[in-house]
Amino acid sequence: MSLSDPIGDMIARIKNAQMRNQKKVDLPSSNFKTKIADVLKGEGFIIDYNVENKSGKPNLTINLKYNSGNPVINTIERVSKPGRRIFSSAESLPKINNGLGIAIISTPKGVMTDVDARKQKVGGEIICKVF
Predict the structure, then answer these.
(1) Cα–Cα separations (whole angstroms), residue 124 to 40, 81, 111, 113
(2) Quick one: 91 exposed, middle or buried, by C-beta within 10 A (0-12, 13-18, 19+)?
(3) Looking at the DSSP assignment, which residues form a beta bridge with residue 57?
(4) Cα 109 to Cα 118: distance, rounded to the nearest angstrom
(5) I need a surface site. Which of 40, 48, 68, 71 has the fewest CB within 10 A?
(6) Exposed, middle or buried, 56 (CB in 10 Å: 0-12/13-18/19+)?
(7) How far is residue 49's CA from residue 103's CA, in Å, rounded to a whole number?
(8) Vertex 15 angle, CA 80 and 5, to 5°
């Protein structure tokens, strides 16, 4: 099955799994999704992730993180969509929740948080915001 927005699907699966208090979520893997999961792990929003090959297709498993029964990810929402791409320069990158959240940015130097993009003075496409 071909998806028109695989990153939106990934975000929806994470939201749905957290609403049901599941410990992990499985989804089809890609290099881009793995890089997003790596950023989420580096910022402490998920415990871990791993990629497995099941029946010849890569599968991404994300272990979700909870704090005293509540999900660590309060809100995760897609910003740039296939129908409307949102780009930003390094100077005009948004601060999410007054610096308490992150924006995941796809830059020419790779996928990174808005804080790292500001430090490296590089802009790009705003994929999603997490807080």
Answers:
(1) 18, 14, 9, 11
(2) exposed
(3) 54
(4) 12
(5) 68
(6) exposed
(7) 19
(8) 35
Q: Are 15 and 78 in contact (CB under 8 A)?
A: no
Q: With contact defined as beta carbons under 8 Å apart, do 27 and 10 qualify?
A: yes
Residue 49's Cα: distance from chain center in Å?
12
E strand intervals along 4-123 = 24-28, 46-54, 57-64, 66-67, 70-71, 76-78, 87-88, 102-107, 110-113
Token pair for residue 75? 């809100």
Give the whole-angstrom CA distance, residue 8 versus residue 78.
6
Is there a contact between 73 and 130 (Cβ–Cβ < 8 Å)?
Answer: yes
Total-model pTM: 0.95
Residue range 16-74, pLDDT digits in tens: 999 999 999 999 999 999 999 999 999 999 999 999 998 889 999 999 999 999 999 99
Coarse DSSP helix, strand, coil percentages of the chain, rounded to the nearest 5 percent = 25, 40, 35
